[in-house]
UniProtKB/TrEMBL annotation:
Domain of life: Bacteria
SUPFAM superfamilies: P-loop containing nucleoside triphosphate hydrolases
UniProt-recorded Gene Ontology molecular function terms: ATP binding
Name used for this protein in its record: ATP-binding cassette domain-containing protein
Keyword Nucleus in record: no
Coiled coil: none
Domain ABC transporter: 4-235
UniProt keywords, alphabetically: ATP-binding, Nucleotide-binding
InterPro entries listed in its UniProt record: AAA+_ATPase, ABC_carbohydrate_import_ATPase, ABC_transporter-like_ATP-bd, ABC_transporter-like_CS, P-loop_NTPase
Source species taxonomy: Bacteria, Bacillati, Actinomycetota, Actinomycetes, Mycobacteriales
Listed PROSITE patterns: ABC_TRANSPORTER_1 (PS00211), ABC_TRANSPORTER_2 (PS50893)
Length: 235
């Protein structure tokens, strides 16, 4: 069963049709890339998947059961986590505190309420060092890290607190080549760990480096829905 299945989803804002009959499936261990110009409907689509807004029409299933989320908490409780472009990190707070920020509203939060500060520190050290954050940086304000490292902290946080489907809203948009590479490697690692990733991007090259499936939205419609094998590149 696909973890997330959208069928014929429609959404309008007044007389603007933001999504017009969109269907897609996302399974565990698969990276689905969503591409499209400004105004194509990408934000609207991820807002629906993450429970921020309801669709006007169509059906949304998670692991085979119909859902109708009335808040992002309900989506999070099913392991659908979103890392937005603005990251929701607090720049002046140490990296490790940012790692735990918001964990009380996620599924994996229970055990962590009982942890003391040194234990949280140790957990953050272990998890953050896995993704190449220097241990000397863990106590620094996260605002001192690069954009790529900050993205990795936000992604690691979502995964650690139980994400099964991870929605990434343009995670490489503000990054240079090297930092983008760090984030793309991390996306590949999430995929290898069995997480289903929805990767919103403006950058077809970044999408191709990690994607299993490629969806192009155009004015709310599906302009393309193809697997990696179905795409041909010049030799
Ligand atoms: P993208 O993320 O691909 O740029 P959006 O989902 O933000 O696309 O927007 C799709 C269309 O819906 C655009 O025409 C946009 O102007 C419109 N739109 C998005 N959000 C709203 C809103 N809250 N109110 C009115 N129109 C909106
Ligand atoms: P993006 O390409 O990342 O969606 P946008 O600038 O298109 O960036 O949209 C930023 C935010 O504003 C999104 O949350 C989108 O839904 C909302 N938005 C887009 N168009 C409109 C609009 N016409 N009216 C109100 N909100 C809008």
């Amino acid at each position: 069963l696909p973890t997330v299945k959208l069928t014929d989803i429609g959404k309008r804002y007044g007389n603007v049709t933001a999504l017009d009959g969109i269907s897609l499936e996302v399974s565990q261990g698969e990276v689905t890339c969503i591409l499209g110009d400004n105004g194509a409907g990408k934000s609207t689509l991820i807002k629906i998947v993450s429970g921020l807004i309801p669709p006007d029409s169509g059906s949304y299933q998670v692991s085979g059961s119909a859902v109708r989320f009335s808040s992002p908490r309900e989506a999070l409780a099913l392991g659908i986590a979103t890392v937005y472009q603005d990251l929701a990190l607090v720049p002046l707070m140490p990296v490790w505190r940012n790692f735990f920020l918001g964990s009380e509203i996620t599924k994996g939060a229970g055990p962590f309420r009982r942890l003391d500060i040194p234990a949280m520190r140790r957990t953050a050290d272990v998890e953050l060092s896995k993704m190449g954050i220097n241990l000397a940086d863990v106590d620094q304000p996260i605002g001192t890290l690069s954009g790529g490292q900050s993205q990795c902290v936000a992604i690691a946080r979502a995964i650690h607190f139980g994400a099964k489907i991870l929605i990434l809203d343009e995670p490489t948009a503000a990054l240079g080549v090297k930092q983008s590479g760090v984030v793309l490697k991390y996306i590949a690692a999430a995929r290898a760990a069995g997480i289903g990733v929805i990767f919103i991007s403006h950058n077809p090259h970044h999408a191709y480096l990690v994607g299993d499936r490629f969806i192009i939205l155009n004015r709310g419609g599906l302009a393309m829905n193809a697997t990696r094998d179905e795409i041909t590149l010049p030799e």
